[in-house]
Write a structure and sequence with these properties.
GO terms for molecular function: RNA endonuclease activity. This is CRISPR-associated endonuclease Cas2. It comes from Candidatus Vogelbacteria bacterium GWA1_51_14. By secondary structure, the protein is an alpha+beta fold. It folds into two domains: 89 residues, Arc Repressor Mutant, subunit A; 76 residues, 2-Layer Sandwich (Alpha-Beta Plaits). Helix content is 39%, strand content 18%. The chain contains six helices and seven strands; from the N terminus they run H-E-H-E-E-H-E-H-E-E-H-E-H. Strands 5-6-4-7 form a four-stranded antiparallel beta sheet, with helices on one face. The chain has a three-stranded antiparallel beta sheet with strand order 1-3-2. Strand 2 and strand 3 form a beta hairpin. Helix 1 packs across helix 2 and helix 1 packs across helix 3.
Length: 185
Protein backbone atom coordinates (compact mmCIF):
# COMPACT_ATOMS: atom_id res chain seq x y z
CA UNK A 1 0.00 0.00 0.00
CA UNK A 2 1.42 3.39 -0.97
CA UNK A 3 1.56 6.39 1.31
CA UNK A 4 -1.24 8.08 -0.65
CA UNK A 5 -3.55 5.09 -0.06
CA UNK A 6 -3.09 5.47 3.71
CA UNK A 7 -4.45 9.02 3.74
CA UNK A 8 -7.62 9.55 5.76
CA UNK A 9 -9.48 11.79 3.29
CA UNK A 10 -12.57 12.45 5.43
CA UNK A 11 -10.31 13.66 8.25
CA UNK A 12 -8.46 15.99 5.87
CA UNK A 13 -11.66 17.38 4.35
CA UNK A 14 -13.18 17.99 7.79
CA UNK A 15 -9.96 19.71 8.86
CA UNK A 16 -9.94 21.88 5.75
CA UNK A 17 -13.57 22.88 6.39
CA UNK A 18 -12.59 23.95 9.90
CA UNK A 19 -9.54 25.90 8.71
CA UNK A 20 -11.41 27.59 5.88
CA UNK A 21 -14.57 28.05 7.91
CA UNK A 22 -16.65 27.40 4.83
CA UNK A 23 -15.44 25.88 1.56
CA UNK A 24 -17.03 27.10 -1.66
CA UNK A 25 -19.23 24.55 -3.40
CA UNK A 26 -16.71 24.54 -6.23
CA UNK A 27 -14.79 22.16 -4.02
CA UNK A 28 -17.32 19.49 -4.92
CA UNK A 29 -16.60 19.87 -8.64
CA UNK A 30 -13.75 17.74 -10.02
CA UNK A 31 -10.21 19.17 -9.72
CA UNK A 32 -11.24 22.13 -7.59
CA UNK A 33 -9.57 21.34 -4.26
CA UNK A 34 -6.20 23.01 -4.67
CA UNK A 35 -5.19 22.22 -1.09
CA UNK A 36 -5.17 18.55 -2.01
CA UNK A 37 -2.38 19.24 -4.51
CA UNK A 38 -0.08 19.32 -1.50
CA UNK A 39 -0.76 15.63 -0.81
CA UNK A 40 1.56 13.03 -2.36
CA UNK A 41 0.66 11.21 -5.61
CA UNK A 42 -2.63 13.00 -6.18
CA UNK A 43 -3.66 12.58 -9.81
CA UNK A 44 -6.90 13.91 -11.27
CA UNK A 45 -8.68 10.61 -10.59
CA UNK A 46 -7.80 10.84 -6.89
CA UNK A 47 -8.95 14.48 -6.66
CA UNK A 48 -12.17 13.62 -8.43
CA UNK A 49 -12.73 10.75 -5.99
CA UNK A 50 -12.18 13.06 -3.05
CA UNK A 51 -14.46 15.73 -4.43
CA UNK A 52 -17.32 13.52 -5.51
CA UNK A 53 -17.25 10.57 -3.17
CA UNK A 54 -15.67 11.73 0.09
CA UNK A 55 -17.55 15.02 0.32
CA UNK A 56 -20.81 13.32 -0.68
CA UNK A 57 -20.27 10.74 2.06
CA UNK A 58 -19.57 13.49 4.57
CA UNK A 59 -22.84 15.16 3.56
CA UNK A 60 -24.72 11.83 3.74
CA UNK A 61 -23.30 11.20 7.24
CA UNK A 62 -24.38 14.72 8.23
CA UNK A 63 -20.81 15.73 9.05
CA UNK A 64 -20.95 18.70 6.67
CA UNK A 65 -23.87 20.52 5.08
CA UNK A 66 -24.37 22.65 2.01
CA UNK A 67 -25.24 26.25 2.78
CA UNK A 68 -26.06 29.27 0.63
CA UNK A 69 -24.75 32.74 1.49
CA UNK A 70 -26.53 36.06 0.94
CA UNK A 71 -25.16 36.31 -2.63
CA UNK A 72 -26.52 32.89 -3.57
CA UNK A 73 -23.10 31.17 -3.49
CA UNK A 74 -23.12 27.66 -2.12
CA UNK A 75 -20.58 26.32 0.33
CA UNK A 76 -19.90 23.51 2.76
CA UNK A 77 -20.04 24.00 6.52
CA UNK A 78 -19.13 21.67 9.35
CA UNK A 79 -22.14 20.43 11.36
CA UNK A 80 -22.21 19.78 15.11
CA UNK A 81 -21.78 16.07 14.36
CA UNK A 82 -18.85 16.93 12.07
CA UNK A 83 -17.19 18.90 14.86
CA UNK A 84 -17.57 15.90 17.17
CA UNK A 85 -16.07 13.59 14.54
CA UNK A 86 -13.14 15.95 14.06
CA UNK A 87 -12.57 15.94 17.84
CA UNK A 88 -12.56 12.15 17.66
CA UNK A 89 -9.93 12.26 14.91
CA UNK A 90 -7.81 14.58 17.05
CA UNK A 91 -8.13 12.20 20.00
CA UNK A 92 -6.66 9.39 17.90
CA UNK A 93 -3.48 11.44 17.70
CA UNK A 94 -3.15 11.66 21.48
CA UNK A 95 0.13 10.45 22.89
CA UNK A 96 1.91 10.90 26.17
CA UNK A 97 5.47 12.11 25.89
CA UNK A 98 7.85 10.01 27.96
CA UNK A 99 10.63 11.96 29.64
CA UNK A 100 14.19 10.65 29.68
CA UNK A 101 14.00 9.91 33.38
CA UNK A 102 11.13 8.71 35.49
CA UNK A 103 10.34 11.09 38.36
CA UNK A 104 9.47 8.12 40.64
CA UNK A 105 5.79 9.11 40.77
CA UNK A 106 2.79 7.18 39.58
CA UNK A 107 -0.25 8.80 38.02
CA UNK A 108 -3.51 7.16 39.05
CA UNK A 109 -6.72 7.65 37.15
CA UNK A 110 -9.77 6.72 39.17
CA UNK A 111 -13.26 7.00 37.78
CA UNK A 112 -16.78 6.32 38.90
CA UNK A 113 -18.96 6.69 35.82
CA UNK A 114 -22.63 5.80 36.20
CA UNK A 115 -24.13 2.75 34.49
CA UNK A 116 -26.28 4.87 32.19
CA UNK A 117 -23.02 6.34 30.82
CA UNK A 118 -21.55 2.90 30.19
CA UNK A 119 -20.48 3.75 26.63
CA UNK A 120 -18.36 6.66 27.91
CA UNK A 121 -16.89 4.47 30.65
CA UNK A 122 -15.94 1.80 28.11
CA UNK A 123 -14.41 4.41 25.78
CA UNK A 124 -12.31 5.81 28.64
CA UNK A 125 -11.07 2.30 29.46
CA UNK A 126 -10.13 1.71 25.82
CA UNK A 127 -8.31 5.06 25.66
CA UNK A 128 -6.36 4.38 28.83
CA UNK A 129 -5.35 0.97 27.51
CA UNK A 130 -4.35 2.45 24.14
CA UNK A 131 -2.25 5.12 25.85
CA UNK A 132 -0.33 2.46 27.80
CA UNK A 133 -1.96 2.64 31.22
CA UNK A 134 -2.12 -0.51 33.32
CA UNK A 135 -5.35 -1.45 35.07
CA UNK A 136 -5.06 -1.99 38.83
CA UNK A 137 -8.82 -2.48 39.20
CA UNK A 138 -11.78 -1.93 36.85
CA UNK A 139 -11.87 1.79 37.48
CA UNK A 140 -8.31 2.38 38.69
CA UNK A 141 -5.51 2.80 36.16
CA UNK A 142 -1.85 3.70 36.59
CA UNK A 143 0.83 5.33 34.44
CA UNK A 144 4.36 6.41 35.43
CA UNK A 145 4.62 9.69 33.51
CA UNK A 146 2.85 13.04 33.64
CA UNK A 147 -0.38 12.79 31.63
CA UNK A 148 -2.61 15.39 33.24
CA UNK A 149 -3.20 17.29 29.98
CA UNK A 150 -4.23 14.15 28.10
CA UNK A 151 -6.62 13.15 30.88
CA UNK A 152 -8.06 16.68 30.89
CA UNK A 153 -8.72 16.37 27.13
CA UNK A 154 -10.45 13.02 27.59
CA UNK A 155 -12.54 14.41 30.45
CA UNK A 156 -13.56 17.42 28.37
CA UNK A 157 -14.30 15.39 25.25
CA UNK A 158 -16.51 12.88 27.05
CA UNK A 159 -17.92 15.47 29.48
CA UNK A 160 -17.04 13.45 32.58
CA UNK A 161 -14.98 15.99 34.51
CA UNK A 162 -16.23 15.31 38.03
CA UNK A 163 -16.34 11.55 37.57
CA UNK A 164 -12.61 11.12 36.89
CA UNK A 165 -9.83 11.82 39.38
CA UNK A 166 -6.17 12.35 38.50
CA UNK A 167 -3.80 11.51 41.37
CA UNK A 168 -0.02 11.62 41.66
CA UNK A 169 1.38 9.06 44.11
CA UNK A 170 4.91 8.63 45.39
CA UNK A 171 4.60 4.88 45.71
CA UNK A 172 2.30 1.92 45.25
CA UNK A 173 2.63 -1.08 47.50
CA UNK A 174 4.34 -4.08 45.85
CA UNK A 175 5.05 -2.09 42.69
CA UNK A 176 7.86 -4.27 41.33
CA UNK A 177 5.53 -5.77 38.72
CA UNK A 178 4.43 -2.27 37.64
CA UNK A 179 8.03 -1.09 37.25
CA UNK A 180 8.76 -4.19 35.23
CA UNK A 181 5.62 -3.71 33.07
CA UNK A 182 6.54 -0.08 32.36
CA UNK A 183 10.17 -1.05 31.73
CA UNK A 184 11.41 1.16 34.56
CA UNK A 185 13.93 -1.36 35.97
Amino acid sequence: MTRAENINYPKIVLGVVVIAGIIAIGAIAPNAVQLLDLLPNQGNKKKSYINKIVIKKLIDKKLVKIITDEKGRKGIKLTKLGKEKLKEYKLTELTIKKPRRWDKKYRLIIFDIKEWKRDKRDKIRRWLEKLGFIRLQNSVWVYPYDCEEVIALLKANYQIGKEVLYIEADNIENDYWLKKSFDLI
